[in-house]
Design goal:
The protein is α+β, with helices and mostly antiparallel strands. It is built from 15 helices and 20 strands. The longest helix is centred in the N-terminal third of the chain and has 10 residues.
Length: 424
């Protein structure tokens, strides 16, 4: 394979074809109607990563938790013309189903590009981030925060055709078969079909910075102006040492990961903090210190306000019997410091749901890069081992109980993300 042919093969070609699989070229097809199944033809590894991500599961059709709240607050995601109680187009679709939002469509199963949520074209047609603060204090969220382009946007442009370079973003695997590249300004022939030209331009200002993320992940207020998701604000006030992509899209085997792990990704959760335990015997007491260090440039947990972390601290005898614990079951009542959460309050000052919140309540989540120590005096009698374990939950305990039998059990169950123990 000569250098020109290899270049055409390796430089991210066919990432977004201008046709639907099994059909002839359709130059009239709007780019935001192109399914990610099309990208799969060449970007197999990137597609596989994206397919397993929450971006691919972001719509109310595929994310059970979002779907449950969408059904309660908005309506049926398979029905057209659904509006909010205020008679407006659902703002959540601007982030969770951006291609549908561009067309003001609410029937999300009417096109693959709608039901795919944040698919390839949803990100790779964003051209400029204008911020989320619109006129008169109105938030411009998701696709509303961007200027979009009909030309694909990539992290880098193409070099001249006679030069060769590796493309760590493309995820194209060299299977020894030369294929044409529709991103170089001309239509191409592939398997007897004409593929319309799909030019791609380099846009590192957006694609290599947090601009690509903040339209959806900066902050989100409810109708009463109470901030719910506010990862962007947390990030801005932290001691910034990393960008979004440095954690959520790391380089692996020469390819930028499109798995974009977050609160649903156990590996990401385990890497998000450092948890250690120290226990020293002082007379009849074990002076025990649990240390939690947030490695992230945003709060932990972050994102949806009902995400939380809690710690179980347990002392065992030599036979493995429990002789002491910081709480019976969930520490919400017995050890509030071991329960990291954001509380939302109503006018009456009592905890309430995100749509009804009128004010922020207590917030003891770990701040960006914060190190926090929790101190305990444990009776030393019969103790052989002291063990601490951190659990992550996508929902508050009350919501877990409410959705039992209505949501998949794995979404309701706590996930162990860290463990430390000391032998006495």
């Amino acid at each position: 394979m000569n250098s020109r042919t290899r270049l055409l093969f390796s430089l991210g070609f066919l990432s977004l074809l201008w046709f639907l699989p099994g059909q002839s070229a359709r130059a009239e097809t709007p780019i935001h109607h192109v399914s990610s199944e099309t990208c799969k033809l060449c970007h197999k590894e990137i597609y596989k990563q994206w397919k397993g991500s929450m971006h691919a599961q972001s719509s109310a059709l595929k994310d059970p938790i979002h779907g449950a709240f969408y059904g309660m607050v908005i309506g049926d995601p398979k029905k057209e013309g659904v509006k909010t109680k205020a008679g407006k187009y659902p703002v959540c679709l601007n982030c969770h189903a951006p291609n549908a939002a561009k067309d003001k469509v609410t029937k999300l199963d009417s096109k693959p590009a709608y039901s795919e949520g944040v698919n390839c074209v949803a990100c790779h047609t964003l051209q400029k981030f204008n911020g989320i603060d619109g006129p008169g204090g109105k938030m411009m969220l998701g696709v509303k925060a961007y200027e979009a382009s009909g030309t694909l946007q990539g992290p880098a442009g193409f070099k001249t055709v006679f030069e060769q370079e590796d493309d760590m973003f493309g995820g194209v695997i060299d299977d020894g078969n030369s294929k044409p590249n529709p991103h170089l300004g001309k239509s191409v022939e592939l398997d007897g079909k004409t593929i319309a030209s799909m030019p791609m331009q380099g846009n590192p200002t957006l694609m290599r910075t947090n601009d690509a993320c903040m339209g959806c992940h900066d902050k989100r207020n409810n109708m009463k102006k109470v901030p719910l998701c506010s990862t962007g604000d947390e990030y801005k006030t932290g001691n910034i040492q990393a960008s979004c992509t440095s954690c959520h899209m790391p380089v692996n085997n020469g390819i930028i990961s499109h798995s974009m792990g977050g609160g649903h990704d156990k590996t990401m959760l385990k890497s998000s903090l450092v948890f250690s335990l120290k226990s020293d015997k002082k007379g009849n007491v074990l002076k025990t210190v649990a240390t939690l260090k947030n490695k992230q440039p945003h709060n932990l947990p972050t994102g949806a306000p009902f995400r939380n972390i809690y710690m179980k601290l347990t002392a065992y005898d030599a036979q493995g019997n429990v002789v002491w614990e910081n709480a019976k079951g969930h520490p919400m009542k017995d050890d509030a410091d071991a329960y990291l959460k954001l509380v939302l309050l109503g006018d009456d000052g009592k905890p309430t749901s995100p749509p009804k919140a009128t004010q922020l309540g207590p917030d003891n989540r770990l701040k960006p890069y914060e190190t926090r120590k929790l101190n305990y005096d444990i009776p030393a009698k019969d103790v052989a081992v002291v063990r601490g374990e951190l659990f992550y939950n996508l929902l508050w305990p009350g919501l877990v109980k409410r959705f039992e039998g209505k949501l998949p059990a794995d979404l309701l169950a706590p996930v162990s993300i860290a463990m430390s123990e000391v032998t006495i």
